[in-house]
Design a protein that fits this description.
14 strands, 6-stranded mixed sheet, alpha/beta
Amino acid sequence: MRSTIAAALLALLLIVIAARSELAQSGLKRSAPPTPSPSPSTSPLSSPSPPAVPAQSGNAPQPSGNQPSEIVEEQIGPGDVLRVDTTLVTVPVSITDRDGRYIADLRKEDFRVWEDGIEQNIAYFAAVEKPFTVVLMLDTSTSTWSKLRQIRQAAVAFVEQLRPDDQVMVVSFASGLTVKSPPTTDREKTRKAINGTGRGLSTHLYDAMSKLMQQNLNRIQGRKALVLFTDGVDAKSKKASYESTVYIAEELDVLIYPILYDTYDPEADTGNSDSGLPGIFKKIPIIGGGGSTGTSRADYDRGEQYLRDLARLTGGRLYDASPDLSYLQDAFSHIADELRRQYSVGYYPRKKEPAGERRRIRVRVNRPNVAVRARDSYVYKESTGPTAPTAAPVNQPTSAPEIKKKPFAGHR
């Protein structure tokens, strides 16, 4: 009996000891902190027009040694924002022969690209043919009154070279900028807007260019161009200047094709009045604004140089207007073909920093006797997401033998 009681007491004691030990251990236990989940990084996106990447395509961007070395896998929900750690720079390139005809049989292997003197690996290549938007800008100031009929005829001739899905916007300028017709594929509406353009007064070319680029052209999506019919002379701009508008053009992804009209009148060369003023107004001095005074040979030389800079720095071309409309018709045909058919070459820059730096681009092809027209530079900008601003390109011919054969004898 005594042994049975003793055994029961011993068992009870062991149970109590075990319970106390378990309680002590549970009091000391701590939960581990949650492990933070990796998040995608953020970096610049410098593509002027980032191409869509098809799942299986020979033209799709290929993996490159210049892409980010660390890849973080994470499940992305439908409402999440995906930020990409890449910088794809795409360069539109036009390749023509000596007669100005587009060369369509080039391959990725035919192209080479340098950035700041360092050759880049081409990660994206495509031959692109698609519609574009063109802005026809008509100078109606007093200096062009004698050429206004020719300007209207030339603008209509350009429209005739377009395809049905190309859009046209018509604007005119003199003392201000007037939108005659917004971008449209309605050719009858476009012709009516051109033919309805009347005479203006003083020349505010720089002001008009600044307003057009900052309020209209920058809102047009896709490939776009400006065909500018003018003598290039500015007499009274106050808000913009030669330098400021050239700078904006450098930062804007648009090709500019000036059509130069020579309206210089030696008899009106007083050195301080608006060029080409009719009748008694030729003798009335006019104080210039942001531009020149408008009548001297130097003013016209400056105007021509201004148009030359706009063309050179945006990848367009300067053409001399001619009384023979057939010359301009051929020129417009080549402009439209150049806008519609291009190659697109893309690369991931080897150099990633710093943001805001202007970088020089050089494009070459392994084909003799061809003209290569491509962007000359761009500004490397940081982005904070997929809708961040793109890099601002500067377009310029990089290797272009002069097209001597007519009808391009007057092309600058």
